[in-house]
Amino acid sequence: MPLASGVTTPPWYSRHCVIEFDICGIGAWSERFANAEELVAGLESGLWPDSVSLQPELIPPRERRRAPQFVKMAVEVMQQACRMAGMEPNRPATVFASQMSDMETTDNICRVLAESPRLVSPTRFHNSVHNAAVGYWSIATASHAPANAIAAFELSSSIALLEAAAQLAVERTPVLVVVQDAAPPVPFEYICPGAATFAAALLIAPPGASARALVRCRLTTSPTEADWPDLPPRSPDGLAGNASARILPLLAAALTPFSGEVNLSFPVAPRLSLQLRLQRETC
Question: If one looks up domain 23-212 in CATH, what number appears?
Answer without folding.
Answer: 3.40.47.10
